[in-house]
Amino acid sequence: MRDIAIIVVIQLLALSYGAMLLWKGRPLYYAYSEGFLQLVQAYDIERQEAAVARKQNPELAPHCYSLPRWIWAPLPKDPDERDRIIKSAVAGGDDVISMPRYFKPWEQGLPELRERLMSVDELGYFSGAEKKLLKERLRAAGLPTDRVNSMAFTGRGRPLLALFDPASLNIEAIIKVK
């Protein structure tokens, strides 16, 4: 009995730990910021930042029941705050995508997003071989390879290619490199 009880306790601890990791890794936002699409997961946002966002920007603040949503994360207009965030991001600290107090509705960022779209060949995130592979996948999907409708979609792994419909700015496809 004692051996089985120990096994049950260890299994319950492992289950709890795994569930906690999944909960903290869940996607909260798909953010457009400064020319890139980025995945923002729950562990990217610190508790105190979430609390500040609930006071300053309750409409877009994260909650325990939040489902993933598309947002625009512009840098603040205040030059001192802007510089502080940029320096933090360059040093490996918090970036504006982990500060929901600055988030804006997706639609407000679409004019800037439209200006930042590039062709696959212009994207700096992918090597020449990866661009060739992406173009082959675009052709196989019946999508044009030379339109200015692409943006890198980054997260924890290799970047993906996001293709937008140039007229509506709806996402047409998200293509994996490898």
Question: How would you describe the overall organization of this protein?
Answer:
The protein is of the alpha/beta class. The protein folds into 2 domains: 27-116, no CATH class; 117-178, no CATH class. The protein contains 5 helices and 7 strands, in the order αββαβαβααβββ. The chain has a 7-stranded mixed sheet with strand order 4-3-1-2-5-6-7, sandwiched between helices. Strand 1 (27-33) and strand 2 form a beta hairpin.
Percent strand equals 15-25%
Oligomeric form? single chain
Strand order of the largest sheet: 4-3-1-2-5-6-7
Tell me the distance between the termini: 49 Å
> What count of helical segments does DSSP give?
5
**Largest sheet entry:** 7 strands, mixed
Give descriptors for this structure.
178 residues; alpha/beta; 2 domains; seven-stranded mixed beta sheet; 7 strands
How is the secondary structure organized here?
Elements: H1 2-24, E1 27-33, E2 36-41, H2 47-56, E3 69-72, H3 79-90, E4 104-105, H4 106-116, H5 128-140, E5 150-154, E6 160-164, E7 171-175
Parallel strand pairs: 1-3, 2-5
Antiparallel strand pairs: 1-2, 3-4, 5-6, 6-7
Describe this structure in a few short sentences:
By secondary structure, this protein is an alpha/beta fold. Helix content is 39%, strand content 19%.
